[in-house]
Amino acid sequence: MQGRDAEKWNSLYRNGEHASSTPAAVLELFVHLLPARGKALDLACGRGADAIYLASHGLDTSAWDISDEAIKWLEHSANSHKLKIDLQVRDVIKQPPESSSFDVIVVSQFLDRSLFPTLCKALTINGLLFYQTFIRERVSDTGPSNPGYRLAENELLELSSPLHIIYYHEEGTVGNTSAGFRDQAMLIAQRRQ
């Protein structure tokens, strides 16, 4: 086990929190951008809806999380879907992916700003980063209460600046706040060199 962070997340998963079986919107909406084959990583995967989605689309998928409870859940889910996923209980901050190791990296509802330079380098040439997480400018109480775990306006663009931006979306509180994609930002970016 990886200490207090692992204990916190294990408790949340045991209590049924963070139990979504739906892949990140950025992944579902832009599935057509995924390569036909290659290596994919669901980083800080939680219960692994994104990993299941990636593997079901033919990618050689790895899923890493600090919580052994989440990984056990994902193992059961992968087996029930008859999917092979490389599962690792892993502190992704202390043990990030190696350089040029993945064609696709998906990060959903996780934020550690110090990890971005490593994530950008962990992509292979032409590899894609799919990222979706919470922003500070919000209309509901969804997500973390600590603003340190939320992105500032356009911050995801800045953090991903070494990459070529393919798509970025952040609505904040503009217009009719009862409609649209709120409380989060999404990005797809590609490593070109």
Question: Brief overview, please?
Answer:
Helix content is 25%, strand content 25%. With 193 residues, the protein is α/β, with parallel strands linked by helices.
How would you sum up this structure, described in words?
The chain is an alpha/beta fold. The chain has one domain (4-27, 37-190): Rossmann fold, CATH 3.40.50. It is 25% helix and 25% strand. It has a 7-stranded mixed sheet with strand order 3-2-1-4-5-7-6. The longest helix has 13 residues, at 68-80. The chain starts with a helix and ends with a strand.
List keywords for this structure.
193 residues, alpha/beta, 7-stranded mixed β-sheet, 25% helix
Strand content: 25-35%
How much is the average pLDDT?
88
Say how many strands there are.
7
How many domains comprise the coordinates?
A: 1
The CATH architecture designation is: 3-Layer(aba) Sandwich
- Summarize the main sheet: 7 strands, mixed
Q: Helix count, per DSSP?
A: 6
Q: What general form does the structure show? A: globular
Radius of gyration: 16 Å
SSE pattern, N- to C-terminal: HHEHEHEEHEHEE
Task: Please describe the topology of this protein.
Elements: H1 4-14, H2 25-29, E1 39-43, H3 49-56, E2 60-65, H4 68-80, E3 85-89, E4 102-108, H5 116-122, E5 123-134, H6 155-159, E6 164-170, E7 184-190
Parallel strand pairs: 1-2, 1-4, 2-3, 4-5
Antiparallel strand pairs: 5-7, 6-7
